[in-house]
Design a protein that fits this description.
By secondary structure, the chain is an alpha+beta fold. It has helices at about 30-35, 50-65, 70-80, 85-95, 155-170, 210-215, 230-235, 240-245, 265, 340, 360-370, 415-445, 460-480, 485-515, 520, 530-545, 550-560, and strands at about 15-20, 25, 40, 125, 175, 190, 200-205, 255-260, 270-280, 285-295, 295-300, 310-315, 325, 355-360, 380-390, 395-405, 525, 530. A three-stranded antiparallel β-sheet has the order 2-1-3. Strands 4-10-9 form a three-stranded antiparallel β-sheet, covered by helices on one side. It has a three-stranded antiparallel β-sheet with strand order 7-15-16. Strand 15 (about 380-390) and strand 16 form a beta hairpin. The N and C termini lie far apart (about 90 Å). The relative contact order is 0.10.
């Protein structure tokens, strides 16, 4: 018998970049104990880091050293710049104690898998089933490097990434029934939801090092875990949990629909039952086949979910929670939706009616840390946003949304000027985009045509937003850097408006240049004259109304000439 060995504690599998830009893979123990040495993750796909962060890095810390109890203790940990000697020893001891549970190919308890899992027909499938960018079955992405008939050879490290990805982001297609699963019918299970992260717009606060990122995701007052809350590797090692809670063990082919037991159970949620099948090749151990079956289903996304913003409704439907996770919108930059990230006030009990946006639990904690001076106003916080757009009844992946922006800490405070400036910037770009779209509509009518329906075709406002995007990101970064300097902030906004005016004017001129000759004279519709002049006049008025600082400067320039 051939024995395959890959232990995530000791073997390199987590790709990280150093402060010098060097990128290579490290073991779990190296990644945690030396987290201060690394700038951040270097995974080839944006969906992989949220999976590894939630399924492995954070739960190991929560189950070993725990989380800080107060903002003062959090500030003490954070100011160390890395885990101190006692914490490092505790983490090392924990990993040593549970080392066997992190064996990727163990015969008894393979990590995040079910030992001996098989289908009733003992059929296995290509490892491409784990990787959405590779064609397999009904999933046929454009430009796939392989066809369904090709063999995908995954290194053990890559197999670990996509194993955790599948637990977090898998599609909602029909799954193979597992032998020993009483809920499987005719060798299949239906009604499978997507992985839990597929139901969210994931929002992860990140710092300047991996250690800072871990700390930002490990805030004080983390929900206290119950006595039975534990990460999946310890849950499968304890049959008592299943007996006590009446739930299926994650190490068995059976599964259940249930709420989370606690935060660690949620982070390491086993939404699928999986077995990786390795083989020996001339290049070393490779995973080429898998068994992928249905796993546990969350009865609902819980309010302790830390990595999403929310929509709160005052009148939820009967039996439903008032809290719904917000999804990211495809084609829209994160900074264009900053309103939901800055909505720190909880609506319950304040007499709110209708729907309200509420930011993530982690960003509310970070505001509290900044308010208690555990974080400086100018700390270079960044927000990583990741989401998946599914199609065909969520059975295929249509798009992956990934973005990262700087977020000024003081903008989270409801009474700080930087918040007003950031909100103003977002509102200005939206207004400029709408004004350019309005100009396009007016010019089309002036030329004898009809406007393009809002949900079809190309609209020039989208092109303007794309052109303003790098400028807006730069301004957000500078606002973050100069958060304590009101004079400098005003200079930044003046410079932003002047440049935004220029870019908007250039896009408007392109529309005028493309207008047909008859648009000059225009035409009357419902007693209103549409012409080049009126379209241009409306657009100029919108520029002056929304870019007031630049408008005053423009007026002085025109008067002087």
């Amino acid at each position: 018998m051939v024995y395959f060995v890959c232990n995530l504690v000791d073997d390199p599998w987590i790709p990280l970049s150093s402060s010098q830009g060097e990128m290579r893979e490290y073991s779990l123990q190296e990644a945690l104990l030396d987290s201060h040495r690394f700038a951040g993750p270097a995974f080839p796909r944006p969906t992989l880091f949220p999976a590894v962060l939630r399924q492995v890095l954070l739960p190991v810390l929560l189950d070993s050293i725990g989380s800080p109890h107060t903002s003062q203790q959090w500030a003490q940990w954070f100011s160390q710049g890395g885990f101190d000697a006692a914490q490092r020893q505790t983490i090392a001891n924990y990993l040593d104690e549970h080392r066997d549970l992190f064996d990727l190919f163990s015969d008894k308890h393979p990590f995040a898998q079910v030992a001996g899992l098989e289908s009733p027909t003992k059929e296995t499938k290509s490892s491409a089933l784990l990787v959405p960018s590779i064609a397999t079955g009904n999933n046929v992405p454009l430009f796939s490097a392989l066809t369904d008939a090709d063999t995908l050879f995954l290194r053990p490290a890559e197999a670990a990434w996509w194993l955790l990805y599948t637990h977090c982001w898998d599609t909602a297609a029909i799954k193979t029934g597992a032998a020993g699963d009483p809920q499987a019918k005719n060798g299949k299970t239906t009604g499978n939801p997507t992985g839990p992260l597929g139901q969210l717009g994931v929002v992860i606060p990140t710092g300047t090092t991996l250690f800072e990122t871990l700390m930002l995701n490990l805030p004080p007052r983390t929900p206290i875990r119950g006595s039975s809350d534990r990460p999946q590797w310890r849950a499968r090692d304890s049959q008592q949990q299943g007996q006590d809670e009446g739930i299926a063990s994650p190490g068995s082919p059976q599964w259940s629909i249930r709420p989370e037991i606690g935060l660690m159970d949620l982070l390491t949620w086993q939404s699928r039952r999986i077995r990786l099948i390795p083989q020996q090749t001339p290049e070393g151990t490779r995973v080429t086949r898998v068994v992928l079956c249905a796993g546990d289903r969350l009865s609902r996304i819980p309010e302790i979910e830390p990595h999403t913003a929310w929509t709160w409704t005052a009148k939820p439907r009967k039996g439903q929670s008032p809290w719904r996770p917000r999804r990211h919108r495809s084609g829209r930059a994160v900074w264009q939706g900053l309103e939901s990230l800055l909505a720190v006030n909880l609506p319950e009990g304040d007499g709110s009616s209708g729907d309200r946006e509420v930011t993530s639990e982690l960003l509310r904690h970070i505001l509290a840390l900044q308010t208690n001076e555990a974080l400086p106003n100018t700390y270079p916080l960044r927000i990583t946003a990741v989401g998946v757009v599914y199609g065909n009844q969520s059975a295929v992946v249509e798009d992956v949304i990934a973005d990262e922006i700087p977020l000024p800490l003081t903008a989270l405070s409801t009474d700080d000027r930087t918040r007003d400036l950031v909100t103003e910037l977002v509102e200005q770009t939206d207004a400029l985009s709408q004004a350019l779209n309005r100009m396009d509509v007016d010019l089309r009518r002036a030329g004898g045509g009809e406007p393009v329906p809002w949900d079809k075709g190309h609209h020039p406002g989208a092109g303007l937003l794309h052109a303003l995007d790098p400028l807006a990101r730069r301004v957000l970064s500078l606002i973050q850097h100069h958060a304590d300097d009101d004079e400098r902030l005003e200079q930044l906004m003046q410079a932003w408006e002047q440049r935004a005016w220029q870019i908007s004017d250039q896009h408007a001129q392109r529309l005028l240049d493309a207008a047909p000759p008859q648009a000059f004279a225009g035409r009357e519709i419902d007693k209103r004259l549409y012409s080049e002049a009126s379209a241009q006049r409306y657009f100029r008025a919108a520029l002056s109304k929304n870019l007031t600082r630049a408008g005053h400067r423009q007026s002085r320039t025109e008067e002087g000439s």
